């Protein structure tokens, strides 16, 4: 594990064999297999093995982490499902060919390809075969799935097949000039693949036609990777290409001198730019690059997926293009959208003040998967998992809503839920209320487990690290509460109310207050590490990326602060007070203020 800013090693671990598969990870662990046939679960913090499991055959393909399981195949032809927490084998499925590709999963099914030239569909829970599809040729390309359209994309030789997961038949196909051996990427109605001739293709999913193609230098290629609206891929000539999705081609980055000459001769120097690295410890100076002007004031924080930003303003939810200042679509709910949207599997969940909770298609605003009505008004944001959505209303009701939009359970607590949004850890839901209690609820059954009495209304959303819960109150008191003892570990008093939700990283908890300050406390002792004073109330929540704290103030400024000591690295002034959290993605800090949504380098 390396530090991305400095390149310094944080830890390393010796495994029992050669590693050729990519690692997978979740919030706490890294999962990886070796050619010796050992699969490891490694702790991200210290690089120590939590568990390992020996299997038959070499593991040369990446695994899939899906729900509480890990799925992968081996060269011996067996497909494994291991329990994520302990590594126990839940089930195995035997094929007659080597498995060299990454599996995909959706809606309780897991799909993978074997060298016996079959695509398999299995029940993810018990491993029972659902169906299989015969491929024309063996393939090294991993499949991709669009769960909303019910299509799996599979490359076999020169053919890109569109396989319907309901009928188990190939309904469409695109034929390319050369074989495809790398994983497929499908985003926003377009499919991106690379072939063995060094070309990358953009294929329109609706008509299966090649929208554009670009030929680089080299033959063997990496899988395409989308970043900030640009398709990136590398070749065996040591060249990395960045190709515009809008049919304009830009070639950025040779990494060896030999390729520099080839590249200039191939595409012309006017299209050539060298790749450069930002020096260790430096960041851009906070230049304002993009402004989206919306019809109403922004009162929620943004979410991001697949080059698109989603944010609520007034009664509308907007989908904005991250690589331009264009609005993709607008969904009008006719009621203020106070909640911040969440995105899971290309489905956007959000709630309106009048108690409507939505799940809509991220690509098509008119496709509403479900709409759930609560008894009271909603001022906080939903918590969304792959299986359930959780939300609270101002009548003190907390709801668990299924993936189909049906109520699983409802619990009425003693106070109104206004600004505090639910969070879940280890199947326990935590939420604060205006009666001054922090509630701990079983997320499966909806039963109240325990509650903690704070000194006043809780409007901040809880942050969880290990056994500790961190949150602030309207009286200006900031708490650390143990989930084991259900008692206060420590507290810290600031000058005014705390509406800002805390962020925790590297032994520090950071939050803002109406006393115009941003605070960083030691998570173990509660002692102040530093504070930074702005010229306005700080009700926005901090965002921390790479040891920098990004936070807005009512003084109309967005600040970038050093996490270690609180010194200001830069500030950008906008047109309105900043009341929402920032989002850092693809080299930009996005934040809403008034009716404008800003993108800052």
Structure description:
The chain is 2% helix and 47% strand. It is mainly β. It is built from 1 helix and 56 strands. It is globular.
- How many distinct folded domains? 4
| Amino-to-carboxy terminus distance | 27 Å
Q: What is the average per-residue confidence, as pLDDT, rounded to a whole number?
A: 86
Residue ranges: pLDDT <50 for 5 or more in a row?
A: 246-284
Question: Short summary of the structure?
Answer:
This protein has 601 residues and is an all-beta fold.
Q: How are the SSEs ordered, and which strands pair?
A:
Blueprint: E1 24-25, E2 29-33, E3 38-43, E4 49-54, E5 64-66, E6 69-73, E7 78-83, E8 89-94, E9 104-106, E10 109-114, E11 118-123, E12 129-134, E13 144-146, E14 151-156, E15 159-164, E16 170-175, E17 185-187, E18 190-194, E19 199-204, E20 210-215, E21 225-227, E22 230-234, E23 239-244, E24 249-254, H1 257-267, E25 288-293, E26 303-305, E27 308-313, E28 316-321, E29 327-332, E30 342-344, E31 347-351, E32 356-361, E33 368-373, E34 383-384, E35 388-392, E36 397-402, E37 407-412, E38 423-425, E39 428-432, E40 437-442, E41 448-453, E42 463-465, E43 468-472, E44 477-482, E45 488-493, E46 503-505, E47 508-512, E48 517-522, E49 528-533, E50 543-545, E51 548-552, E52 557-562, E53 568-573, E54 583-585, E55 588-593, E56 596-600
Antiparallel strand pairs: 1-2, 2-3, 3-4, 5-6, 6-7, 7-8, 9-10, 10-11, 11-12, 13-14, 14-15, 15-16, 17-18, 18-19, 19-20, 21-22, 22-23, 23-24, 25-56, 26-27, 27-28, 28-29, 30-31, 31-32, 32-33, 34-35, 35-36, 36-37, 38-39, 39-40, 40-41, 42-43, 43-44, 44-45, 46-47, 47-48, 48-49, 50-51, 51-52, 52-53, ...
């Amino acid at each position: 594990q390396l530090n991305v800013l400095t390149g310094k090693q944080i830890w390393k671990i010796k495994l029992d064999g050669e590693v050729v598969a990519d690692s997978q990870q979740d919030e706490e662990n890294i999962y990886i297999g070796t050619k010796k046939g050992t699969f490891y679960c490694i702790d991200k913090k210290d690089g120590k093995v939590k568990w390992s499991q020996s299997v038959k055959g070499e593991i040369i393909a990446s695994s899939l982490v899906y729900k509480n399981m890990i799925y992968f195949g081996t060269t011996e032809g067996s497909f494994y499902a291991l329990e994520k927490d302990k590594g126990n084998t839940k089930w195995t499925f035997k094929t007659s060919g080597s498995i060299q590709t990454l599996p995909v999963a959706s809606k309780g099914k897991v799909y993978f390809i074997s060298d016996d030239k079959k695509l398999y569909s299995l029940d993810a829970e018990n491993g029972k075969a659902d169906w299989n599809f015969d491929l024309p040729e063996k393939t090294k390309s991993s499949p991709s799935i669009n769960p909303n359209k019910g299509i799996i994309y599979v490359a076999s030789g020169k053919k890109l097949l569109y396989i319907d997961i309901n009928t188990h038949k190939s309904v469409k196909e695109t034929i390319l000039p050369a074989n495809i051996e790398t994983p497929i990427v499908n985003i926003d109605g377009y499919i991106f693949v690379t072939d063995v001739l060094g070309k990358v293709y953009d294929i329109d999913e609706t008509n299966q036609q090649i929208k554009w193609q670009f030929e680089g230098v080299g033959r063997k290629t990496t899988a395409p990777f989308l970043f900030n609206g640009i398709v990136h891929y590398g070749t065996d000539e040591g060249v990395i290409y960045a190709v515009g999705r809008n049919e304009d081609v830009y070639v950025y980055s040779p990494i060896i001198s030999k390729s520099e000459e080839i590249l200039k001769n191939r595409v012309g120097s006017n299209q050539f730019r060298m790749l450069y690295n930002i020096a260790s410890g430096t960041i851009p100076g906070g230049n304002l690059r993009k402004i989206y002007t919306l019809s109403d004031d922004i009162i929620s924080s943004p979410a991001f997926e697949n080059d698109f930003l989603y944010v609520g303003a007034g009664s509308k939810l907007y989908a904005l293009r991250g690589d331009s200042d264009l609005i993709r679509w607008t969904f009008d709910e006719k009621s203020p959208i106070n909640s911040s949207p969440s995105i899971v599997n290309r489905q956007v969940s959000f709630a309106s003040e009048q108690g409507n909770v939505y799940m809509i298609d991220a690509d098509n605003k008119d496709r509403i998967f479900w709409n759930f009505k609560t008894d009271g008004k909603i001022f906080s944001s939903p918590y969304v998992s792959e299986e359930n959505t959780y939300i609270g209303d101002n009548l003190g009701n907390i709801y668990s809503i299924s993936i189909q939009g049906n109520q699983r359970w409802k619990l009425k607590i003693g106070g109104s839920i206004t600004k505090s949004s639910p969070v879940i850890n280890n199947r326990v839901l935590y939420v604060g209320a205006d009666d001054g209690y922090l509630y701990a609820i079983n997320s499966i059954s909806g039963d109240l487990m325990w509650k903690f009495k704070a000194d006043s209304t809780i409007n901040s959303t809880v942050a969880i690290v290990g056994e500790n819960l961190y949150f602030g109150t309207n009286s200006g008191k900031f708490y650390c509460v143990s989930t084991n003892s259900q008692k206060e570990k420590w507290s810290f008093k600031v000058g005014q109310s705390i509406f800002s939700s805390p962020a925790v990283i590297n032994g520090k908890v950071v939050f803002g207050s109406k006393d115009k300050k941003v605070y960083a406390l030691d998570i173990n002792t509660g002692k102040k590490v530093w504070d930074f004073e702005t010229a306005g109330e700080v009700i926005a929540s901090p965002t921390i990326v790479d040891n920098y704290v990004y936070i807005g103030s009512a003084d109309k400024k967005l600040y970038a602060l050093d996490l270690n000591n609180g010194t200001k690295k830069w500030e950008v002034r906008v047109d309105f007070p900043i009341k929402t959290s920032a989002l850092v993605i693809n080299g930009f800090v996005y934040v809403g203020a008034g009716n404008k949504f800003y993108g800052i380098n």
